């Protein structure tokens, strides 16, 4: 997760998933800033977004 207080270079959350699950990420974005997230499974990226805006 990347926003005003988090970096994609640091793990935001580690969890074991054994069934379908919904996760909510709350981003803190300054004016004009975009956020990003990346979901990995055993080192492989399974989903990502790098242009999340506060609009």
Can you give a write-up of this model?
By secondary structure, this protein is an all-beta fold. It has a domain at 1-7 and 33-55. The protein has no helices and 2 strands. The protein has strands at 35-41, 44-52. A hairpin with a 2-residue loop joins β1 and β2 (44-52). It is elongated. The two termini are 18 Å apart.
Percent strand equals: 25-35%
Query: What separation lies between the terminal Cα atoms?
Result: 18 Å
Whole-number average pLDDT?
92
Oligomer: single chain
Ranges where pLDDT stays below 50 over 5 or more residues in a row are none
Q: What is the tally of helical segments?
A: 0
Rough outline: elongated
> Helicity range of the residues?
under 10%
Main β-sheet, in a few words? 2 strands, antiparallel
Give the strand tally. 2
Q: Radius of gyration, Cα only, in angstroms?
A: 12 Å
SSE run: EE
State the strand order across the main sheet: 1-2
Class by alpha and beta content = mainly beta
């Amino acid at each position: 997760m990347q926003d005003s207080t988090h970096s994609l270079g640091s793990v935001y959350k580690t969890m074991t998933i054994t069934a379908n699950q919904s996760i909510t990420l709350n981003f803190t974005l300054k004016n004009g800033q975009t956020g990003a997230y990346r979901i990995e499974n055993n080192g492989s990226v399974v989903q990502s977004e790098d242009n999340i805006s506060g609009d």
